[in-house]
Amino acid sequence: MPFRTNRTTLTQYLIEERRRYPGASGDFNALILDVAMACKQISKAVAYGELAGLHGEHNAEEGGSINIQGEAQKKLDVLSNDLFIKTNEWGGHLLGMASEEMDDPLDIPEGYPKGRYLLVFDPLDGSSNIDVNVSVGSIFSILRAADDEPTPISHEAFLQPGSKQVAAGYALYGPSTMLILTVGNGVVGFTLDPTLGEFMLTHPNLTIPEDTQEFAINTSNSRFWEAPVKRYVDECLAGKTGPRGKDFNMRWIASMVAEAHRILMRGGVFMYPRDTKDPSKAGKLRLLYEANPVGMIMEQAGGRASTGHVPVLDVKPSGLHQRIGLVFGSKNEVERIERYHAEPQKSRDSEIPLFAERSLFRD
Length: 363
Ligand code: AHM
Ligand code: MG
What we know:
- The protein folds into 2 domains: 194 residues, Fructose-1,6-Bisphosphatase, subunit A, domain 1 (Fructose-1,6-Bisphosphatase, Chain A, domain 1, 2-Layer Sandwich); 142 residues, D-Maltodextrin-Binding Protein, domain 2, CATH 3.40.190.80.
- Helices cover 29% and strands 20% of the residues.
- The strands form 3 sheets. It has an 8-stranded mixed beta sheet with strand order 2-1-3-4-5-6-7-8, sandwiched between helices. It has a 5-stranded mixed beta sheet with strand order 10-9-11-15-13, sandwiched between helices. Strands 12-14 form a two-stranded antiparallel ribbon.
- The termini are far apart.
- Bound molecules: 2,5-anhydro-1,6-di-O-phosphono-D-mannitol and magnesium ion (MG).
């Protein structure tokens, strides 16, 4: 195994970052280390998989369990959620937690000190892929609670725009386990050294190329897309012979953390836009624990994250489990998609047969 003696551990990185803020209490660093511990434990559980009887649906013998999203929970969804709670509730850094897998926010149990941060997470994103052994991940977002925030903690405490995030990150459980982190000062990546059980700094300054020739979208939804998205994808597909004058490649893993990571490594654009498939849902992905943390990482790496209309980090959330249309990745491509949304659609509607009869647009 290639061995380097000069690798920086996550702990060392956090301590060195903290030295830049002499007034910092160390609470924040301890919180990140607790989150990292949850990710290490989840990484192990994911890796053991069926060896530990961890594949399949939660409570299958009792007919399964459904989360607030109406999605069947996997055993690993429930275990990952529990691991996040157990590794983070005791430390005294948090006032509350919220997760994709819990209908309501969670208070810090009696007996543990309360802190000033809020932790929001998707414990195992892409878990519908677990049983097929595709890369999945955990996504987290850290917010500051208001000084006078009452307890028990309310949904409202978490309804802060993504621009207020103190830190965000994800762990990717792939061929190697990685932790990607931003504390608002660029984006860094760590790789888990499995023998030491330590995250080692391997990617000290992640930046996303501004241009790309790779896009990711679930094209099975194309008949539900709004016109600007359809235009963008049509132009990519037209390649060299179309208005873009270059060929594009397409990828769809159906595991957002894995897609975000690919984009962070080599550029690209990801779209799960608002569409007309289910008018009760403004997109598939969730604002607070999917779009916002990934959005902060993208922006901090020089990319862009948008609803198609506005920067995703500017959106004032209206609900804990709110869904939103999401486009992120290489800056110039995301800006192009925003331009297509901003352009008046009328003239193009009549040009495109699909949109000539009826409008698929919504305000
Ligand atoms: P999940 O949080 O229930 O795992 O759902 C989110 C996932 C994303 O990781 C991924 O981008 C998307 O769902 C895939 O959706 P689809 O199956 O429609 O392609
Ligand atoms: Mg998810």
